[in-house]
């Protein structure tokens, strides 16, 4: 008989549990240029993402406030980590790659930059949880687009 | 196994054998289905009744002049008699078929709300309503100048009767629309008292019986309510069939909800006249096969009997509350005195969605989220809860499996 940890190890990898429990980028930025809220109306997850732009069309700082499950918090935290210093156009492309990975578990387009996000590929096996992982990204894109609000529906 | 109060003749093994799905495995584990409050599983008799209808005597109802249609019409209409008997309605014509409870409430909001109620009148709901008993009244408020009031729920998850009385006191409330049993707390509302109080203030009462009718005998005449709604799929029947019961004189006075075939007496391009109650409210080809399935489901429940069913579920609930109390960090949300087999809880250090996923990996199906009661969650200061709910086929061993599963979840997260 397998242990629960073995059963769910594909989804709840150590890095996800760690960032879900102790997010490094949680909190509203002291000053920011844009922000957006994301809601998952089906389950009640909520996230707000804050962005301060850097030089040369990059993201200078990113932070978030979230109420949600371990997957959504970890995804928001890892996202905030990987987008800082990244060009906005690259960030948008990264979201597409991430979304494909979350849905399919496959990542042919994955490069080194995606390494930190790879542990989230396990959600593809849990269709009702994919949105937990993508919600922070939807909010980030809404912030970059100046939309202020988005939904994972 | 805790069988302090075994129901006479209640053979759980035999009952479980009536439900084909319960022998399934999920993720390689035996299915432990604790999500019946969302939708219940179906016994073989329901499945067979629907298949048999399609295989042997299916045609449209109320319009064919042939053997098949007459037989199908008889089978469909006999469900109305069975539902009337289930609720102890005064007359079979008081039973209107809808798609579900939601449609039944919308029917009342549209027809009674727009047709009979006057702008300025009040609809009184409670904080622990399902979205289905909130949104139709908001729509009525916004389109028709009806005021909506919300009665408070106490910290224990019970309807605050003092607040109800206060909100009725100016006699402006035309309709009280309240759940008979909370889908979040499992609380039974003291409906006899509520109805008496509402009537003293000139208000009609609609009860949302979606949860209650599954667990307790409902007698609309003894209760004295004015409208009662429930849905088939929570009562071991199929989806797509629900019921509105209303007192005959109310249905007579109410204008139709939807227009179309079956609900008319005659149609010309200048004007149409309506069919008699209840057909006035049943436009278009109804859910024929589903109605026949509902009849089988009600027959199944009645054969077991509400006394045995209530005793079984009361024993399960007691067992669940005592077992869950042993899980460290677990908090049961709602501590009503009078409650049934719906138990919401939170687990310290673990979000409800993670709890649900980790239980699912152990073959245990529960609900997690806001349970279509977002305002209540906000009132409780919660984003979501986990919820285990029980049915006629739930066993004490399944409660024990839940408890073991939750302890494993706790170890995993803490």
Structural account:
The complex is a heterodimer of chains A (153) and B (414). A four-stranded mixed beta sheet of chain A has the order 3-2-1-4, covered by helices on one side. Chain A has one domain: Sufe protein. Chain: A (Alpha-Beta Complex), CATH 3.90.1010.10. The model of chain A has no long low-confidence stretch (mean pLDDT 91). Chain A contains five helices and four strands, in the order ααβββαααβ. Chain A has helices spanning 4-7, 14-21, 70-83, 88-104, 130-144, and strands spanning 34-40, 45-53, 59-67, 149-151. With 153 residues, chain A is an alpha+beta fold. Chain B contains 15 helices and 17 strands. Chain B has helices spanning 12-17, 44-56, 67-87, 101-115, 135-144, 161-168, 191-200, 212-215, 220-223, 248-253, 288-304, 306-324, 352-360, 374-380, 396-413; strands at 25-26, 29-30, 32-33, 95-98, 122-126, 147-151, 173-179, 204-208, 227-231, 242-246, 264-267, 272-274, 330-333, 342-347, 364-365, 367-369, 385-389. Chain B has a seven-stranded mixed beta sheet, with helices on both faces. In chain B, helix 2 (44-56) runs antiparallel to helix 11 (288-304). The A-B interface holds A 4-5, 7-8, 11-12, 17, 42-46, 67-71, 126, 129, 132 and B 27, 350-354, 357-358, 361-362, 368-370, 374, 377, 383-384, 408-409, 411-413.
């Amino acid at each position: 008989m397998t242990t629960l940890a073995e059963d769910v190890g594909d989804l709840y990898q150590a890095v996800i549990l760690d960032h879900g429990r102790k997010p490094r980028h949680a909190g509203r930025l002291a000053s920011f240029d844009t922000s957006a809220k994301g809601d998952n109306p089906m389950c009640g997850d909520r996230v707000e993402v804050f962005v301060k732009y850097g030089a040369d069309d990059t993201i200078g700082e990113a932070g978030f406030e979230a109420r949600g499950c371990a997957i959504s918090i970890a995804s928001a935290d890892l996202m905030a980590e990987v987008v800082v210093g990244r060009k906005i156009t690259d960030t948008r492309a990264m979201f597409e790659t991430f979304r494909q990975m979350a849905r399919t578990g496959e990542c042919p387009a994955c490069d080194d930059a995606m390494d930190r996000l790879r542990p989230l590929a396990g959600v593809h096996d849990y269709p009702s949880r994919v949105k937990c992982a993508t919600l922070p990204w939807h909010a980030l894109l809404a912030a970059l687009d100046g939309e202020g609000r988005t939904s994972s529906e | 196994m805790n069988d302090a109060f075994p129901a006479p003749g209640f053979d759980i093994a035999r009952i479980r054998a009536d439900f084909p799905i319960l022998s399934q495995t999920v993720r390689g584990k035996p299915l432990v289905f604790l999500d019946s409050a969302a939708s219940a599983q179906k016994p073989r008799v329901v499945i067979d009744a629907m298949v048999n209808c399609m295989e042997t005597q299916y045609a449209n109802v109320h319009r064919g002049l042939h053997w098949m249609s007459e037989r199908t019409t008889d089978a469909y209409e006999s469900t109305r008699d069975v539902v009337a008997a289930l609720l102890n309605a005064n007359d079979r014509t008081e039973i209107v078929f809808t798609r579900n409870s939601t449609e039944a409430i919308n029917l009342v909001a549209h027809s009674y709300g727009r047709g009979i109620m006057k702008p300025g009148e009040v609809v009184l709901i409670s904080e622990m309503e399902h979205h289905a008993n909130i949104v139709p009244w908001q729509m009525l408020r916004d389109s028709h100048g009806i005021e909506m009031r919300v009665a408070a729920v106490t910290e224990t998850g019970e309807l605050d009767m003092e607040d109800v009385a206060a909100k009725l006191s100016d006699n402006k409330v035309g309709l009280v629309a309240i759940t008979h049993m909370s889908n979040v707390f499992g609380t039974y509302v003291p409906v006899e008292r509520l109805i008496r109080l509402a009537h003293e203030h000139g208000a009609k009462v609609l009860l949302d019986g979606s949860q209650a009718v599954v667990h307790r005998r409902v007698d609309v005449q003894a209760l004295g309510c004015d409208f009662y709604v429930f849905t088939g799929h929570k009562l071991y029947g199929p989806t797509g069939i629900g019921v509105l019961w209303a007192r005959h004189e109310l249905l007579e006075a109410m204008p139709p909800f939807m227009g179309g075939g079956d609900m008319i007496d005659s149609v010309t391009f200048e004007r149409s006249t309506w069919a008699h109650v209840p057909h006035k409210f049943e436009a278009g080809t109804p859910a024929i096969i589903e109605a026949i399935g509902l009849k089988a489901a009600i027959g199944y429940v009645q054969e077991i009997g509400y006394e045995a069913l209530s005793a079984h579920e009361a024993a399960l609930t007691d067992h669940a509350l005592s077992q869950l109390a042993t899980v460290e960090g677990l908090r049961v949300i709602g501590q009503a005195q009078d409650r049934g087999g719906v138990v919401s809880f939170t687990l310290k250090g673990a979000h409800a969605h993670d709890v649900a996923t980790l239980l699912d990996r152990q073959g245990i199906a529960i609900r997690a989220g806001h349970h279509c009661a977002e305002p209540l969650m906000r009132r409780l200061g919660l984003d979501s809860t986990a919820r285990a709910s029980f049915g006629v086929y739930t066993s004490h061993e399944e409660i024990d499996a839940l408890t073991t599963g939750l302890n494993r979840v706790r170890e995993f997260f803490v």
